[in-house]
Specification:
Acyltransferase, transmembrane, Acyl_transf_3_dom
């Protein structure tokens, strides 16, 4: 399958919209009906992050058919690191300014900045977990380390063991995230080893293995996606409400991923592979190129919007629990992030589809143009 897969490129921008929706929490806190809608949106959206891991693993396998794996991984690592660095460079001053504003005028600014910078530069959370500045940026280090683990298996010619080993770690991750009633896992599991490695390995296996989705079975894959999607919602309801005695009106169940997430992601990806031209006649494949830019800029955009909300609340304007705010926050974050990434691209600070680190020569070329 050497041609462009329009269906996957189309799904990139759709999945990114769901990622933004996870972080904006639409309708949460607006009574039982609002919480129910939030729960349904969040449960539906949970395929999105695994989809990006699977996609990365799939194309890693595809590219390394004709390229030396370690060399290709080095190129991918440089790109991912540049994207992460850009996200940090954008988010850090925004978050620092927000911390100062939230503290008001009674606290020494220097002490606030020092405290925040110490937290931001904690080596483990900065380099590995990716949540030192923003929880949202964790995906990028997780992807980098996940691809690194796959590269080690490829270099050692042990790819037959890749998925079983990754599955073993992911089971621990699931127990520590969504099935805590069975066992207490005393460490962070939303990372490369316990989460990203498994889904990225699945993507690698989908291309490197012998199985190929059949176009004639495309309706079956789509039906399975819908069925597993419903199962996913039901599973999360059982975990979050039936087993705890809570009600939707009291709280919203938020833990991230579960067993059914795997089934939804696999069936959806199989459907997309079985329909490679899906979306070709629409703008969606082209818009897919902007997904990375939206992802890496939306933490800062969302933070500014939420800070504005808090300032309005403090001034006596109750906007947080209004329908208008909840209807506007997700599209404002999505398109605001798109505008920021496009502006950075036009200024020559980043290159969409390439490096996300400011390069002086690129900026000079932009200025001279």
């Amino acid at each position: 399958m050497g041609d462009r897969i329009y269906s996957i490129d189309s799904m990139r921008i759709v999945a990114m919209a769901f990622v933004v929706a996870i972080h904006t929490d639409p309708f949460r806190g607006l009574g039982a009906y609002g919480n129910t809608l939030n729960f349904l949106i969040d449960s539906t959206a949970r395929f999105a992050v695994p989809f990006f891991f699977v996609t990365s693993g799939y194309f890693f396998a595809r590219k390394t058919e004709t390229r030396e794996p370690i060399g290709y991984f080095a190129d991918r690592a440089a790109t991912i690191a540049s994207i992460y660095a850009f996200g940090l460079l954008l988010s850090t001053p925004v978050f620092l300014a927000g911390a100062i504003v939230r503290a008001g005028g009674d606290t020494d600014i220097a002490s606030i900045v020092l405290r925040e910078l110490i937290e931001f530069t904690s080596p483990l959370t900065l380099v590995y977990y990716g949540n030192s500045v923003s929880e949202i940026l964790w995906f990028l280090p997780a992807l980098l380390f996940s691809l690194g683990l796959i590269c080690l298996f490829v270099a050692a010619d042990r790819t037959a063991h890749l998925v079983p080993v990754a599955l073993g770690f992911h089971v621990i991750g699931l127990l520590g995230a969504s099935y805590t009633m069975f066992v207490d896992v005393p460490f962070e599991v939303r990372d490369a080893l316990f989460f990203g490695f498994f889904y990225t390995s699945l993507g690698y296996w989908l291309h490197a293995g012998d199985w190929r989705p059949n176009a004639d079975r495309s309706p079956s894959y789509l039906g399975a996606t819908v069925l597993f999607g419903a199962l996913h919602v039901a599973e999360r309801y059982v975990l979050g409400y039936a087993l705890t005695g809570e009600s939707v009106g009291q709280s919203v169940y938020a833990p991230s991923y579960s067993i059914a997430t795997v089934l939804v992601t696999l069936s959806l990806f199989a459907f997309l592979l079985s329909r490679p031209t899906l979306g070709r006649s629409t703008p969606l494949p082209s818009w897919g190129a902007y997904a990375v830019g939206i992802y890496v800029t939306h933490p800062a955009v969302l933070y500014v919007l939420e800070l504005t909300r808090d300032l309005l609340e403090g001034a006596g304007y109750g906007v947080e629990n209004t329908i208008l705010w909840h209807l506007a926050l997700t599209p404002a974050t999505f398109f605001g992030a798109l505008l920021v990434s496009l502006a950075a691209h036009r200024l020559g600070a980043i290159e969409i589809g390439g490096s996300h680190l400011p390069v002086p020569s690129r900026i000079r070329n932009h200025d001279s143009g």
